[in-house]
Every structure is written in C-alpha cells, then in structure tokens.
Design a protein that fits this description.
Layout: H1 9-19, H2 26-37, H3 43-55, E1 59-65, E2 68-73, H4 75-91, H5 94-97
Antiparallel strand pairs: 1-2
Length: 98
C-alpha cells in the first residue's frame, strides 16, 4: 500500500495540484498554490518539494523547452492519492462534518 505519510502537508497539497492539471509548468503550480494558500511561495520552497515528489515516483518531470519543465502525476501518485482519500474517509464521514 502506498501512503503519503512520508510527505509533508505542503507536498501533499502540491501533489493534488499537479493531479488537477495536464502537464503544468512549475510556474503554473506556484501560482495555483499561492492562490489556494493565500501566501507567496518562493522558488526555493517549490522546486525542492517538486523534486521530492519526482524522487518518490509520485510525479514525472519533463521538458517543455530549455528553460521550462512540466510536471505530471504518475500512476503511483494517483494510487497514493486514492489510498490517502480512502484512509481519510475512515475517519471523516459526511455526518461528522455536519
């Protein structure tokens, strides 16, 4: 079973945002996360965390051009997100949120 317990909350958020796009650039991910989190993100925070997701095989990194990379969720990343949601669902039922 793949879990996301080895990731930080920021890394999990980043993985969710990657999953919501078709090959986003790092800049697009940065912009979406800044909007969602209502805070400015530095490149020094974003890219090392993307590299962690790539190194754990949750995300693939490709090249758009010599200056721009894209990121894409892998099957492993999708599986880990699904299993995380199933784990969360054990504890957070809709009736508990009302």
């Amino acid at each position: 079973m793949m879990t996301l317990f080895d990731l930080s909350g920021f890394q999990r958020d980043l993985l969710v945002v990657v999953a919501g796009h078709d090959q986003p650039s790092g800049q697009q991910l940065k912009s979406d996360l800044e909007d969602a989190r209502d805070e400015e993100l530095s490149h020094g925070r974003l890219y090392p965390n993307l590299d962690t997701l790539v190194n754990k095989d949750y995300v693939e990194k490709g090249e758009i051009d010599r200056r721009t990379n894209f990121y894409q969720i892998t099957d492993e990343g999708r599986t880990a997100l699904r299993e995380r949601r199933e784990w969360e669902a054990q504890y957070v039922r809709e009736t508990a949120l009302v």
